[in-house]
Amino acid sequence: MTNDARELLPIRLFTQRTVDEKRVEGGPRDESPAWVLAGEALEERAKSLRDGLTDESFLERHNPDLPYTFEVVLDNDDTAKSKRGAVVDMLSPSGSGSSYVVGMRGATGLILRLPTRESVELVASRMNEPDRYGAPITCVLRIGPFRPEVDAVEEGIFKVKLLRDRAEDGDNAGAFSTYLDTLGIEHKLLSYSKGMVIYKAAMKPDEVRAVVDGSLGESIFSIKPMPKLSAVLDGIAECDVPPVRQPVGGGQPPLLGILDSGVKEIGHLAPWLGDSMSPYPLSDMDRSHGTFVAGIAVYGDELEGREWVGGLPPQVFSACVIPDPRAMTCNEDELVDNIREAIAKRSEDVKVWNLSVSIDSPVSSDDFSDFAMALDEIQDEYGVLICKSAGNCMGFARGKGKSPLSAGADSVRALTVGSVAQAKGEWDEADEGEASPFTRCGPGPQFIIKPEVCHYGGNAGVCPDGSVCQSGVRSFDLDGGAATACGTSFSTPRVSALASNLALSLDGKFDPLLVKALIVHSASFPGDLVVPRDEKVKEMGFGVPSDVRRMLIDEPYEATLVLNGELPKGEIIDIIDFPMPESLVEDGYFRGQIILTLVCSPVLDPLQGGEYCQSDIDVKLGTYDDICTRDTTKPTILNPIGRTNPSNLLLSKPYSKRNLKKPEESFALRERMLIEYGGKYYPVKKYAIDFADLTPANRKLVAAGRKWFMYLRGTYRDAAERRALRERKTLSQEFCVLVTIRDPRREAFVYNDVASFLDLHGFWHQTVPISNTVRASLRGIVA
User: Fold this and answer.
1) How many CB atoms lie within 10 A of CB 132?
2) Where does a domain end: 481, 515, 540?
3) pTM for the predicted model, two decimal places
């Protein structure tokens, strides 16, 4: 079934009712958890921790005025917030409520700074009471002196990151600058992200050692070579060019910022170029990469003869943020400054930015990169969305596996894009629809899903003579002729063009979470090839997004609902009348498919290592028997209305494992495999379920008499809660949830039935407001 192009059915916004807003309730605590060590094992652990704090060789310092700095290594199984608070309190000489933990290294290393010998001895004395501090002692594997990570094999430009002091103890940045001056080391204080103190310094290896061993050595977190950039046009060949397009008068086109090597005013792009900026003269620029990227953003569908993006061509604002590498070197800090300057200049009107420039270094599995954290702060400060390439690798040419994502691709706020093969040549490695051989793969730090999506960026392989062959995507060279090339650099502008169209489509204030959620929600895996689920998600995220029209317009047999807002700490959203239409009931049971996507904006803290994401939102969608009245006179019960026998359907347990592996139809191949990708502290979660996959014993969960609910609850890590308490701030998270309810047989009129249900149950709702310019273009496209 398809819509007539003149009868648009836009997706629908709705909000929870007052009755759906509730408070978080506490529960009884287990006073004697089974995991706590006891007896001799507890005594030995306490002794080893006490020795780690009081060993005289550990307590030697280069500067007696600096705090004593320790690394407290937690057990991997004991990093939960419920256990963290007790550990931090035990390590605080001031007692419960205050924290001397100033940050983290990785996912398990707490950085503890104690100001005096007396405070060290006070904390150590608590290890003499293992029965009193049994739980936090059990959580800590060892305590020892903190040693900075130093990588200085040869002379060069280094990035020196400092430890932070406690907020009430002031900042050590000024003293360290003076310290470097006394050593005659040229340096500069950099601006990456609030909370991080980073210097750029030119040093020889012996100078690095002198800094580490000097009077402020205990202030250093790490010293590493400054990352460099890469933005290379991977390959060029001839192909046909489409005719030059001209902007159509009477409407504002989408706006897209391109952060790259610059864009040349060739014939095809000149009508679409707005103003531009560059800190470099033309003689120091190589605009081939940026021109190729811009060509795909504006002409991508026409060049390939396929409607992958749809919508309107964007007007491009070009910001040259990297020079020609043959003319001069560009380091990471310079790139950060150039990006910040460009976005600051045009952030009032340009809300979507394409960044197809990669850093040489890969992301860590434990820590988020400094570049990513800088990109996050820039996006928060200016209210924009960056679409970032995942990065390329050449492991396939050497018979090796794929490399981790390039630094920056782990930006939490950005939308990271991988590459998929659009065609297969004779010697190409990937089949059409598979991840490109060169695309770097996730996950991101702490297993967050990165890239979130992918798009068509070329294919590659190794010829019999050992040379690399390519089946590239099409764009333009510097002479205005057609060219082909491969890379995630060239899949990313397709997603950026989608995002810029959505930014124009959605009347009102730009909402990066909604744009990001729409793109992820629409994504599915292309082709009919069955690839192991984990591998697909690592390389392709949630898949290739649909075109603009499919994101914004429903068919009669489906309904997409959008719920967005802000969820304060201590509150939950529990929608007890979720709209599941009766038209989907057959033989006493609901049938249908549900796709749910949640994108949230977690609290971020650059000092917390692997726990950079300091908050999360848990989502449940399911059924229950009936509403019940609850006894609010009990101390742990705050909400008067509850649900009986609730069941969350966003879990794999109720579904047949055999059915989930069947590859005979499109939902199984392209969407159903995402059912488990909603891990804790994932900023993006997605679920896709089909009621037909429920086991016979669990069909009762979708019986016709059952009611439906959707539940959202925020959680926060211990460090975020302590900081909010200290700064007297209320914690909250912005979020966006998209839910599509679909009849796979395309028979029930789900779209109208859901709207009627919302009316009947008193929900505010309206169709997503679409600008007239985009609405006109959508009417001219038949789905």
Assistant:
1) 11
2) 540
3) 0.91
